[in-house]
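Example S7 (structure tokens).
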């Protein structure tokens, strides 16, 4: 049944409760469950954490009747994020989880870029896509060399492992990370896309900042430091797409709608029955959150949510299917793009500020280049290939 943002009321906020055993369930399997189930888990944890982040900022800025509802919403969002994130299994190493995070960035961003009708926003998504695509390649080399594992065991053949726009050149001057914000009258879909991706990138950045220092290997520590810096740039890139003239309560309403939009797509496409039930439950919860946010919007700002949602129909959702052919096309056509302020330009027209910034950062070497030197993905691992070559060389003629 189609969801209507203005009419569907969902589960009332005061009925949204958990026990500890509801929050911590049997997790998905690293190898037995479909990779898209894990992609949905990682993405929705990022969306939930961004919902918490927004409400925490609002709590520090607002007085009056919004404070209690914000606190109540945050409690439920915290528990939803826990239930979602705890579905990841402990048999993932931190580096395997990193591979999964980059697969999320590639597959979700590619789908969003295809959905986006605003050409400037779509270009911005394709630009970030090719950088996350290269991050997957660098981390795959690290996984092979550090743990002797093939990243395709995590990717399950849905996502290519080849270089994208080299991480070496991702480092830009801050002013070149900015995008033109979408206009106040942008389509609802445009707003939902940007909110989703900034939450996903924020989560990835925070994960790398926490996990990176836990490695003893110097190459791993350097690579996580480098790519965490790029993920911070992506937060700026996608975050600057959001219109700064939206009021805090307008942003709250839009974020709750974003959560509804995402959970609906998850529930509709989920193959795992346990996860599907979780997505359906949280879809109802987010519809309840949206009712609270819309009521605040009406009471405090005296505005009608219909000005944001039109007839209340949900735009088409993220497609959880391999985006391989689309990514290959973008890679072939746009790998040489760079930034100059708000503009996307050919590499020979990149801003001097970014070139200067990057040259200094890379003046003592590039972690992403070093970790993948002479490495190319093929099925198996370097150790496996070396053993095969050795056996071939020593076999009798």
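Recovered sequence:
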């Amino acid at each position: 049944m189609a969801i209507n943002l203005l009419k569907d009321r969902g589960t009332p906020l005061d009925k949204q409760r958990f026990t500890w055993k509801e929050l911590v369930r049997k997790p998905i399997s690293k190898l037995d469950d479909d990779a898209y189930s894990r992609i949905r888990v990682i993405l929705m944890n990022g969306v939930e954490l961004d919902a918490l982040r927004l409400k925490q900022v609002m709590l520090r800025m607002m007085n009056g009747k919004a404070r209690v509802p914000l606190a109540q919403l945050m409690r439920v969002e915290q528990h939803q994020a826990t239930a979602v994130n705890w579905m990841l299994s402990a048999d993932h190493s931190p580096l395997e989880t990193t591979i999964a995070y980059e697969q999320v960035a590639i597959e979700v961003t590619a789908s969003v870029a295809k959905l986006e009708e605003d050409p400037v926003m779509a270009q911005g998504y394709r630009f970030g896509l090719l950088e996350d695509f290269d991050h997957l390649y660098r981390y795959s080399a690290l996984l092979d060399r550090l743990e002797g594992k093939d990243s395709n065991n995590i990717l399950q053949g849905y996502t290519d492992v080849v270089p994208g726009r080299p991480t070496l050149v991702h480092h830009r001057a801050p002013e070149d990370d900015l995008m033109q914000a979408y206009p106040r009258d942008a389509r609802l879909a445009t707003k939902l896309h940007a909110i989703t991706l900034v939450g996903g990138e924020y989560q990835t950045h925070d994960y790398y900042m926490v996990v990176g220092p836990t490695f003893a290997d110097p190459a791993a520590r350097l690579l996580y430091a480098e790519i965490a810096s790029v993920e911070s740039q992506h937060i700026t890139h996608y975050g600057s797409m959001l219109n700064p003239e939206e009021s805090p309560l307008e942003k709250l309403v839009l974020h709750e709608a974003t959560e509804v939009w995402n959970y609906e797509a998850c529930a509709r496409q989920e193959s795992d029955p346990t996860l599907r039930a979780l997505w359906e439950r949280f879809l109802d919860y987010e519809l309840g959150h949206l009712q609270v946010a819309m009521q605040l919007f009406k009471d405090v700002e005296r505005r009608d949510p219909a000005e944001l949602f039109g007839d209340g129909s949900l735009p088409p959702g993220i497609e959880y299917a391999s985006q391989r052919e689309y990514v290959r096309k973008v890679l072939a056509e746009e790998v040489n793009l760079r930034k100059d302020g708000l503009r996307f330009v050919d590499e020979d027209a990149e801003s001097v500020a970014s070139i200067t910034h990057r040259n200094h950062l890379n003046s003592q070497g590039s972690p992403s280049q070093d970790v993948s030197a002479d490495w190319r993905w093929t099925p198996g691992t370097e150790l496996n290939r070396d053993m095969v070559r050795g056996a071939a060389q020593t076999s009798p003629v």
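Notes on this example. The first helix runs from residue 20 to 23.
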